[in-house]
Amino acid sequence: MFAGSVSEEVLRQDFETLTVSKRLVRSVSQKLRKKNHRGEGGEEDKVRGVSLKCLTLYGRGGGCKVGADTGEELGDPSYRRRSSASEEGKVYKSICGIEDNNFDCFSYGVREKFWKKNSRKDLDLEESVRNSRMHIFLPDDILEMCLVRLPLTSLMNARLVCKKWRHLTTTPRFLQMRREGSCQKPWLFLFGAVKDGYCSGEIHALDVSQDQWHRISADILRGRFMFSVASMQDDIYIVGGCSSLTNFGRVDRSSFKTHKGVLVFSPLTKSWRKASSMKFARSMPILGISEVCSDFSVIQSHQNRHDRQFPRSRVGGVSDVYEDPHRLSLRRQYRNAFDENEPSLLPNRRSYKFIRQRSEQANMKGCKRFVLIAVGGLGSWDEPLNSGEIYDSLSNKWTEIQKLPIDFGVVCAGVVCNGMFYVCSENDKLAGYDIERGFWIGIQTSAFPPHVHEYYPKLVSCNGRLFLLSVSWCEGDGQIGRRNKAVRKLWELDLMYLTWTEVSVHPDAPMDWNPVFVADRNLIFGVEMFKIFGQVLDFFTVCDVSDVEMNWSHISRNHMAHELDASSCMTKTMAVLHL
């Protein structure tokens, strides 16, 4: 029995020895197979500062626990046997004659996983550092100062970078900063384009400083024609118009509907919104837009004035109402009074203080108040209208104003100048509407500038100066059998003495019967389109009234109209903005 137990003990020891030997052989073979790989990765491991020879498992006492008697701590009673077996395995030599005294703490596959994990972290760190170098993180206020100085085309491209830039460039604060900045350039927006007989609804925008055309899609205007536009600050107002009832989208006046809706387009944000509709449907109304003070009251100024028909007039520089139509002397007097704080010239100091507080609050909010006047045009039955209405941007409402007299004729042009809305008729009559007081004034000027009957005069205003463009004969006087030559001239009205003076001559022959002239600041822009030899041509010109000579120059020619139909010559309209 004793001999049997001894034999079992010997067999057990032999089995353990064989097991240890197999384990050691397998470990050595794995090391040989991966030796080359470790040799290549060793340099990178040293650079990264990661030791792959020992897996640093930290315990409560600190220090590396690999190779320590962790089995006792974990309550494993067989830890001594495993430790002794490991000590026994150290006496064996390498089967290839190469002795490796380093002990690898990693089991099979752990080293590769650990290396890949640390390598991925290092790559992520390097990528974040590289991205931080590429993207400069600026505060929002500095970023706004950079973006606000970009040209409009570059600003539109900058909005495509990220959502943050798009949000920053569309806030009211950013738009106010850009409006008050000095980097604005004039842009012309041409409406009413017709292609293949259909109203395309496209807006053609011209960057005057770069002489580049841009096309803006406006599906909301598709099928709408014969409307009028007016610009204020950063917005363009589209008022009235017609649309065909039988052939939608086509320029067809055999069966049409006249609109009284008003749309507002903002080029800076490329957004559309609807304003309050007019009380009467109109096509091709004459528009005038003006900024007013914050305490302006439309209801008080224009209430119960519908029955008055030119109760006042002004002839030869003398008015039976007041000699100064724009109250320049009165404004100068009050301005001096405000500067000197003289209470004798202030009838109600308390009311003035309240108005001043309201004005300051409006200026703090950054929203300016303005009115839009629509006069004349054609009604629902294609009849000429002599009525008018005024729109208040603060209340978003339209209010009727005093009608023009019947003998005044059909209104063909109008513009706001120094708080007065001037209109002229086909009968060569001139009238002015006092926006603050709410009534019309008949103006008798010196001899009205002569013009060819088919070419109606156009009114524009620049820096408080009133101009008129008319076509007249310079040779032949239009008589049959004689050589006839017509030119377009620019006239200026002296607002004090009411006399017309010729100041400039347009260089191009008046080929367009319906030209469009708009003005902004000290520039007058004009567009003429006509069809000749089967092709539609366009000419864009500009005149700087601040120049003593007031010469005209071409800014664009035959870049856009060759795609349009001849009917675009009658449906076109234009607005100018500084963006």
UniProtKB/TrEMBL annotation:
CC per GO annotation: SCF ubiquitin ligase complex
UniProt cross-references to InterPro entries, sorted A to Z: F-box-like_dom_sf (IPR036047), F-box_dom (IPR001810), Kelch-typ_b-propeller (IPR015915), Kelch_1 (IPR006652)
Organism expressing this protein natively: Gossypium stocksii
Identification of the protein by name: F-box domain-containing protein
Domain F-box: 132-178
Membrane-spanning intervals of the chain: none
Family matches, as CDD domains: F-box_AtFBW1-like
Signal peptide positions (record): none
PANTHER family: OS09G0555300 PROTEIN
